[in-house]
Amino acid sequence: MAGQPQDDCLFCKIVAGEVPATIVRETETTVAFQDINPQAPTHVLVIPRVHYPDAASLAAAAPEVAADVLREAGQVAAAHDTQSYRIVFNTGSGAGQTVFHAHAHVLAGRGLQWPPG
Ligand code: AMP
Ligand code: ZN
Asked: Yes or no: is domain 10-27+41-108 CATH 3.30.428.10?
């Protein structure tokens, strides 16, 4: 059920401490950890503790938690002393989403092309 931990979800397992991750920040509602395959010098994932498959469904069901994810993304960037960063929510396999638990990629530390690929 949406909002509940999913047995087959990698990020639910990271939230539960069942899969290790390099956690950089935690709040009551979110966890932020290093991406295992970084695409920039700073590449941190911010996830809600609750399970929703993508950012829009999280925002529809739990808007305050979606706001927490965005606030934490800003805090990750601030901790890396940068005002230039990108927050990415890949949504759908055609857009590169591989883990279907909502997550924000926070990318910084190099030039970020626009438009993205
Ligand atoms: P996406 O492709 O947008 O769904 O993003 C999923 C991200 O999760 C990718 O950037 C992966 O590198 C990252 N990832 C996959 N497994 C792990 C893991 N065990 N710990 C940290 N990051 C992971
Ligand atoms: Zn999950």
From this structure: yes
